[in-house]
Amino acid sequence: MTQFATFRASSLYCVECRDAQPVQEKLVQVFPDKQIYEYLCVRCGGKVGNREVSLGSNFLEEETADPATTRIKIV
Ligand SMILES: [Zn+2]
Fold it and tell me: Cα(71) to centroid of ligand 1, in Å?
């Protein structure tokens, strides 16, 4: 429950560590309409997921008001 509230900022499951680990967010690609972030495990440095942020015409509003536009894909 609280896990989901802090999901984005704190930790993700890492297959290398076989446990949820704190992650670092790293901007890896920038497109005109979106940005791709990678989540890297702070313990082993492995990639544990990525995040695609859509930059619509009102992306600032989306970022703060509509979390549904942020999609996290666990790889
Ligand atoms: Zn790890």
Answer: 21
Q: CB of 62 within 8 A of CB of 46? A: no
**Neighbouring C-beta atoms of residue 22, cutoff 10 Å:** 14
Using left for φ > 0, alpha for ψ between -120 and 50, and beta otherwise, residue 45 falls in left
| pLDDT for the residue 55 | 81
CA 60 / ligand 1 centre spacing (Å): 31
Alpha carbons within 13 A on the beta-carbon side of 27? 5
Ligand 1 centroid vs 13 CA: distance in angstroms? 8
Can you read off the two tokens belonging to residue 56?
A: 């619509």
Which pLDDT band holds residue 9 (cuts at 50, 70, 90)? low
Query: What residue spans define the domains of the chain?
Result: 2-73
Tokens encoding 44: 């082993």
